[in-house]
Write a structure and sequence with these properties.
- The complex is a heterodimer.
- Chain A has seven helices and ten strands.
- In chain A, the strands form two sheets. Chain A has a six-stranded mixed β-sheet.
- In chain A, a hairpin with a 2-residue loop joins strand 4 and strand 5.
- By secondary structure, chain A is α/β, with parallel strands linked by helices.
- Chain B has one domain.
- The longest helix of chain B has about 40 residues.
- Classes of the chains: A alpha/beta, B mainly alpha.
- The interface between A and B is medium-sized, with 30 and 23 residues.
Chain lengths: ~230, ~280
Amino acid sequence: MIQRASIHELRFSAMSFGFDPSQRILSEVDFSFPQNQVAKIDSPAGAGKSTLLKLLCGLCHPCSGDFLINGQSVNQMSFAEFVPYRLNLGYAFDLGGLLNNRTLRENVELPMLYHGLYPTQDIQARVDLWFERFGLTSVQHERPSAVSGGRRKVACLIRALIHEPEVLLLDEPTVGLAENLVEELTSEVRRRRDQGSLKYIFVVSSDERLQQGNFFETRICIQGGGLK
Amino acid sequence: MATRVVNGFWHYIESWGASVLNQIFYTLQVLAMVYLAFRATIVDRAQGFRTIVSVISAQIYFTGWQAMPLISILALASGSLVIMQSSFQLSFFGGHEMIGQLLVIVIVRELAPLLTALLVIARSGTAVASEVGNMKANREIEALEVMGINPLSYIVFPRLVGGIVSLLCLSFYFTLIALMGGFLVTKFTHDLPFSFYTESLAAAVAQEDIFLFLLKNTFGGAIIFTICCYQGLLVKQSPHEVPQVTTKAVVNSIIYVTVFNLGVSLWFYLNQLSRMGGLW
């Protein structure tokens, strides 16, 4: 069984990234990401908010420079070497991301069963609990295409949170979510952060409800090829 | 005038060379993917071997089990035709006792691997290419990566192994139905004793027939499912790319499988000829 690697530092070192080499989203960025704060990623539309999340979870690789986790360059790691860190990452997609040929329950169970993160009975109990809390019990055996967009979003959020990651990346997490579920999500994130189990929280969201609820504690702005 | 002809000739050679190089490059990329898929599953201590085995069994169910009715019809029809034609032609020339040998050559060595492969391409190759393509467009592949699940061990490896096992079993089933079912169908038109037929078949099957059968089906399955997974993974972002990659997967699979089967048969017969001293 692979052991999770604890994450205590996320840093960009002279990091540049762009899908098109002539148009860099980030250029020569040196940035140390803030710990224990709910960070809102901010930028004009299309300026690279979701791309920054992808960089942070290793789905995109820098064109030059380094993305360092605990001082180790992610660029230099193989897929297998990065897995212990990935087990401490939770990423909720803005759209898609659920396996269409699996039920909502199987989608949530998959990473925990695959990596043997908990005993099978514990996994069942955890999923039961989370599905109950977020109102998915009645549709747990349905495939993603058979449920509403809001429920798909909830399943995606549960999958990102259920294994208690240290780094949480949420891309438009509240789109299509009812008020009580938004409340449930924000309180769960705050509770975990206060407990110290959740160290880094990055959220891309334009939802006024999160803004009004003072969910965000800091802002990271993508501006002029840099981070502020 | 002469310069134009020479230039045209060089242009033709150039474009031919470029397409050959493209094919070589494509083959190398596909082979690299197979290597990486096996490495990811076996060498990199893939964690979810139980999950991978469940995906393999699902693949065998969809590709192998669900294709059996169609294979039965195809095998029965082609077996009946081959047995009817060959027994009639052989009796016409007085070579009735050769029936077993002829059927083994035509059905076991050639028809079963090729027809089964073509049917699997049409049925499952398209399904795999479009499924993987849709997974890519729907960001399911990205989701797997984020969860620390290597798509090569979770998507490619099970489809490859499941595909090979399915093709082997289906081809064996095809042979059985074609030889036995075909005989029963032609029983109404020909008076061929069953004992004579089975003895003739048993005497005709040799070690090299089994070798050729296994070689063609194992590599046929590997070719089909590797190409289909590879093409599916070529989808970048949009679902509109899925039909395009599916078509390309089918075309490439048919070309590679038929060329491979032809190559193996040619190699086998040239080898036999050279052993008999009939060549060089």
